[in-house]
Amino acid sequence: MAHLTEAVRETLGWYDGERPGVKANLARILMHGRPGGSGRLVILPVDQGFEHGPARSFAVNPPAYDPRYHFELAIDAGLSAFAAPLGLLTAGADRYAGEIPLILKANNANSLGTVKDEAVTATVRDALELGCAAIGYTIYPGSDRQYDMFEEVRAGAAEAKARGLAVVVWAYPRGGQLDARAETALDVVAYGAHLAALLGAHIIKVKPPTAYVAEPEAKTAYPAGAYDKLQDRVAHVVQSAFNGRRIVLFSGGPARSDDDVIEEVRQIHAGGGGGSIVGRNAFQRPRDDALRLLERIIDIHLGKAG
Amino acid sequence: MAHLTEAVRETLGWYDGERPGVKANLARILMHGRPGGSGRLVILPVDQGFEHGPARSFAVNPPAYDPRYHFELAIDAGLSAFAAPLGLLTAGADRYAGEIPLILKANNANSLGTVKDEAVTATVRDALELGCAAIGYTIYPGSDRQYDMFEEVRAGAAEAKARGLAVVVWAYPRGGQLDARAETALDVVAYGAHLAALLGAHIIKVKPPTAYVAEPEAKTAYPAGAYDKLQDRVAHVVQSAFNGRRIVLFSGGPARSDDDVIEEVRQIHAGGGGGSIVGRNAFQRPRDDALRLLERIIDIHLGKAG
Amino acid sequence: MAHLTEAVRETLGWYDGERPGVKANLARILMHGRPGGSGRLVILPVDQGFEHGPARSFAVNPPAYDPRYHFELAIDAGLSAFAAPLGLLTAGADRYAGEIPLILKANNANSLGTVKDEAVTATVRDALELGCAAIGYTIYPGSDRQYDMFEEVRAGAAEAKARGLAVVVWAYPRGGQLDARAETALDVVAYGAHLAALLGAHIIKVKPPTAYVAEPEAKTAYPAGAYDKLQDRVAHVVQSAFNGRRIVLFSGGPARSDDDVIEEVRQIHAGGGGGSIVGRNAFQRPRDDALRLLERIIDIHLGKAG
Amino acid sequence: MAHLTEAVRETLGWYDGERPGVKANLARILMHGRPGGSGRLVILPVDQGFEHGPARSFAVNPPAYDPRYHFELAIDAGLSAFAAPLGLLTAGADRYAGEIPLILKANNANSLGTVKDEAVTATVRDALELGCAAIGYTIYPGSDRQYDMFEEVRAGAAEAKARGLAVVVWAYPRGGQLDARAETALDVVAYGAHLAALLGAHIIKVKPPTAYVAEPEAKTAYPAGAYDKLQDRVAHVVQSAFNGRRIVLFSGGPARSDDDVIEEVRQIHAGGGGGSIVGRNAFQRPRDDALRLLERIIDIHLGKAG
Amino acid sequence: MAHLTEAVRETLGWYDGERPGVKANLARILMHGRPGGSGRLVILPVDQGFEHGPARSFAVNPPAYDPRYHFELAIDAGLSAFAAPLGLLTAGADRYAGEIPLILKANNANSLGTVKDEAVTATVRDALELGCAAIGYTIYPGSDRQYDMFEEVRAGAAEAKARGLAVVVWAYPRGGQLDARAETALDVVAYGAHLAALLGAHIIKVKPPTAYVAEPEAKTAYPAGAYDKLQDRVAHVVQSAFNGRRIVLFSGGPARSDDDVIEEVRQIHAGGGGGSIVGRNAFQRPRDDALRLLERIIDIHLGKAG
């Protein structure tokens, strides 16, 4: 670990008042890998197996059935961190100890049930034993269970911070008054990011928003034409997270062509996004293709030609 | 206990990062009985009485009403371990102390209610007092109570591991979007095994899957014809459990003819299954028949002509 | 683990009323290694480094500085169990998981201080995490701190038994009214063994007693000439441990010639001693010599010509 | 953090069976600063103020009265870690978060009292909140309070390890049978290092031993002439710490000339010492002199001409 | 258990305000055995092995080395209860469960040390697990450690009562200002009984007092000649225990002739003593002699010709 860069110092400055351990763990993530020092993050999350099942997640690239595959992919691509549920992290945390910051994804849902909720599947204590730098939770703003989820996040986040762990929140509005289109509406995604910040998240993950505005009452806040470009929508979401004083990461969504992914990342970078969290577009490609794509993504976040 | 065999050493290697006590208890089970040292397990579970009531479970073979019958059956058959609920284990743990590794089945359901859930009926402390090598939990992925069940398993498994006990998870998808046919669908069984691994199970028990694929989104992951043979389906379920780095046991289901059971075990063995967990097909036969069948099952898992 | 032998069943019968887990762990020790099944035990204890320092313990046989040396010596000699303090057990418990029953020596003293006491250096929880079958404590009956030590043992033993662990007590009278000669006096050693049994020990370790009787009030209980042979003194100590219903092990003391050790072991066996606990006479010899001596010791306890 | 080097991987291999979080924190320290990756450590400890008072510690170099001075000295010198008591760490942990691994010195003594003991002045929770990679304790083997100190270390170390922190033990024999000369005797220093390892330390700090042997019973283990060179004494102390399978650091002692310090470090390096822990010889020099000396010390541990 | 007798009802009336569970356990003891229903108790205590060592206790009657001997003696003699330390009770509590009320002697001393204290060797929890009706403690009024002992008894008794156990206190003044003669002085024994009552004992055990009065200040309270007969001294001690509203038992002391024992018991009965607690005079006789003597003792307490 070299001296902190100015970019990282500035980012840590946003977290004024957090415990030193939290800042040290944010610094670990911010200084690690190829994006290290830039203030931007590129993270590999592998909770697809929990969410969609193993075959839908890994059949297209069978080596990915092995937990060690993902650790090595994240390490070899020079990513900032690796995020996964308890069992998957446990299956590699010892072998790869010290090689990459880990984020324990502590609640999870699957696609077999009908209830829009998540199970708390891991604890702060688990995160400490595994040597994680952060713990992560998903919230479903809008769902009938949203307040229970907020309370679980609150409890977990409070304990995590008291033990020096950073807190990542995946903000995925759904349920309640939200139809499928609304889940990625600009106002709704921004609202989700803001809720995550208000719940105490240090790092927030959202989906790239569309230009649609779902809440009638919100429409006046979004002048026609002002958010036609993704870059502007990204900037608005970042603004919604304490005026850019929280790290907001944008997810890549389902597997697509390299060019589609890259174009989206360019806009995220241009809009001041804190970085990318790339799951299926990484582990559902053959390893070499994935490494190549991740290299391009990192380059963009480093301000190099992608 | 002789020196560990290479097969057992390799299996323990999958559990990299687990506490030494967990590995020692896995080794106790893996080195015990006739399958001892092979890396494969054959286990007798007797929770049918809880699940289906005594008469449906034992009337066909009345000596099985006595808890000691099952201990002796498991011991005399040279099985790897014996699994049962608290009361049943307590009724023999003293008399048969040291004769066979025990697995405390710590949650249970019955057939009288309508809610798809289980009651937590025993604790890690009970398991330690009874001298168990492992504790076991059932999950019903898909059911409306699935997330509560996951959280119960999480809590029990964390305490068990901290006390050096191995964790067995019975993964039985049901409820939610799953109709009866879907419960044993290939994608669903594989999904259940994967969830058990992600929740931290060391040993996973599933039902042999059919060739049916239930989730529409999963169908592309299963090319037509590729999974017509049970052996290939078994291999896929094993792959879904961390690419074969977790022990996956296949249950025998309702009582059937010896030949049907044996044919199924052959396919399980051929597909790389970690072994068999045989309840009704053992204790619902007359003792001598059961011993003979179990001997054949073990022989197959040992690679001998069955 | 084969069926328990009659000898082991009989031994377990002495522990009537103990929890099944305790019996299962006693059975693990009693069935393990070359003495397995005989009802006799031969154990390697390595706490000399704590008691006397590393050079006095290991300089004569430098490979013994490495914790793994002792695990391998105990395993390769086919001993019943290996006992050591926390740090030493931790340094091998993972690598040798499942290969030999472990006993965590949970209190320790060193030779640098002047206070006759021990520090509690490990807990029942540590023992469970390391996969131990038993936990062990030293008591110094007679010392000014004896009652504190008894209370520490009581607390540790109660917790250990509630968690299914067997309890080993090293009974070493010293201090108080006891001069150096009295520490190994027949009445005093027998008294120490009795106290250990009353405190709840399952396995008791004592030093071979001399024919000296230290307590004036005890002299009438020891007719002149009746205890001239070590064999008879051993029998009396065993009798003092609940009339032979506790396993009493005799330690080998400082390193001596093979013949001296063997002659002593013969008398211990002839007197009905439960076995030998051989530290310095094992690890302070070159490995091959140690293996040869341990083989002879085991042979004697198995009733073979030594 | 780059990929771990082979030297660091080998060092982590010594800690087989420890939790992943402990290994990750050891890796953080081992990969940090100029010694990063070499397997050797150079650490700045500043507990002199607690031990000897501020004037005796800092008057010679007044900027050192400011806690931030020490953080910056350690960071600018490229050291592996910085160790200090609670108040001093708290005074800089936020400002320098993420810049250098921290070790919370959790017990302390002062020079005002007469009892050879230490107060526990900080907890594992403090260490986590401050973002420390390790927690440290001093023991005084031999003192009348030694067993109480061992028990405090045991409790703290157990909790630290369960939370993924590494454990450093300062082993300083004193009191009891030990006069001043004995405190740095070869046998006594080696004994202290061994006790620290048995108590579960991952990193052990000792003073460079003299050629004097204090315990009469230990003299035969030290052939005359065999330990005349410091390098050989260092090698013996390292051997006493599980045959070199624990990191042993040697302290610099009172402030001396650069040449004296450098010559001692050369011998420590030649003897296989794990590194240096340099307090007074660093912060009691003017900053530029200190940086120059620390650079030379690191160079020696990196195998470069000093 | 038949209806309580009037005598037992009256005795229970003394314990007005105690929890029902305590009364139920007192009733169990008072209704048991041949003295059952009389309001008088005859109890076998076997803590001699702890106090004086095994040979001094049992060599004269070797079958008594076996814990089961004492259970059977107490049961076959039709005694009210059996009292012993943890290890000895544990060795028979299972085999003889339900055959005789048990009293766990929860603190103990031995004759090897020089400190006048006792170790707390068992807990209320132990007593409950073993199915005891009462827990017992010794106090040494006068000794330097008396207040610590009182506090231990207080804590144990409070917990015992909260769990429904009766509390027995052995009151043995010694140490401090008391020389050997004073230990059985009338005023001192009465003082001890009173202290036990004040500390909350339900049943108090004392030694038969001599006519000597030890405290100068107490002499005026004991008119010359008024206490020449043991019967009157017994009456005074009983009076000192809340005017006879506590059960006071008198111990038999060292082994003596049957006639001496019987004569003493006659006086105890005549003086209104609550019964006898007979250890060495029971188990240090051959079994048949012991049974005969105990029969005579019970007869006296039942008011039959002895």
Summarize the structure in short.
The first copy, chain A, is of the alpha/beta class and 306 residues long. The first copy, chain A, is built from 13 helices and ten strands. The interface between C and E is large, with 43 and 42 residues.
Written account of the structure:
5 copies of one chain form a homopentamer. Chain A has helices at residues 6-13, 20-30, 48-52, 54-58, 67-76, 86-93, 124-129, 146-162, 186-198, 230-240, 258-270, 280-283, 287-301, and strands at residues 41-45, 81-84, 102-105, 107-108, 119-120, 134-139, 166-171, 203-206, 247-251, 275-277. In chain A, 41% of the residues lie in helices and 13% in strands. The first copy, chain A, starts with 5 loop residues before the first helix and ends in a 5-residue tail after the last helix. Chain A is α/β, with parallel strands linked by helices and 306 residues long. Chain A has an 8-stranded parallel barrel with strand order 1-2-3-6-7-8-9-10, surrounded by 7 helices. Chains in contact: A-B, A-D, B-C, B-D, C-D, C-E. Chains C and E meet through helix 8, helix 9 and helix 10 of C and helix 3, helix 4, helix 6 and strand 5 of E.
Question: Secondary-structure blueprint of this entry?
Answer:
5 copies of one chain form a homopentamer.
Chain A: H1 6-13, H2 20-30, E1 41-45, H3 48-52, H4 54-58, H5 67-76, E2 81-84, H6 86-93, E3 102-105, E4 107-108, E5 119-120, H7 124-129, E6 134-139, H8 146-162, E7 166-171, H9 186-198, E8 203-206, H10 230-240, E9 247-251, H11 258-270, E10 275-277, H12 280-283, H13 287-301
Parallel strand pairs in A: 1-2, 1-10, 2-3, 3-6, 6-7, 7-8, 8-9, 9-10
Antiparallel strand pairs in A: 4-5
Helix pairs in contact in A: 9-10, 10-11, 11-13
